[in-house]
Design brief:
Elements lengths: L2 H9 L11 E7 L4 E5 L12 H11 L5 E8 L9 H8 L2 E11 L4 E5 H4 L13
Parallel strand pairs: 3-4
Antiparallel strand pairs: 1-2, 1-3, 4-5
The structure holds tetrahydrodeoxyuridine.
Length: about 130
């Protein structure tokens, strides 16, 4: 199954009764393993989690910490980019040249790199004094 197909399939499991906006995410780790996540909302709205966060948690739980490729899919008129918080979460485990494919359920895709999605990202180097 392609990364896009994995993201499309996991999106079906999204728990989004409040927004009704289901999102699926799939990560291919550098090991080759594929991890999937969907958004999980909560009646206390800020407690909800994004699809990307779920896929990252699955990846780390699976023993991987380096991302090779990401795919996100939603039923949207245009490909939906990861939210700002998820860009930072992905950047923790992904180099700037990692490709993020954003897709709509009806077949539109947009590919951007992590550096394009999050230029000037805060990094560990910013905490070094010299
Ligand atoms: N959402 C994601 O899962 N990923 C994104 O990149 C954008 C937004 C979810 C969060 C919430 O459950 C719903 O989409 C509407 O914001």
């Amino acid at each position: 199954m392609s990364l896009l197909e994995t993201a499309r399939a996991v999106r079906e499991h999204a728990y989004a009764p409040y927004s009704r906006f289901k999102v699926g995410a799939a990560i291919r780790a550098e090991s080759g393993a594929v991890y999937a996540g969907c958004n999980v909302e909560n009646v206390a709205y800020p407690q909800g989690t994004c699809a990307e966060a779920g896929a990252i948690a699955a990846m780390v739980a699976g023993g991987d910490t380096r991302i090779a490729e990401v795919c996100v899919i939603a039923d949207s008129p245009n490909p939906v980019p990861p939210c700002g918080g998820c860009r930072q979460k992905l950047r923790e485990f992904a180099g700037g040249d990692v490709r993020v494919t954003m897709a709509t359920t009806d077949g539109k895709t947009l590919v951007m790199t992590m550096d394009q999605l999050l230029p000037g990202a805060f990094a560990a180097s910013h905490m070094e004094r010299r």
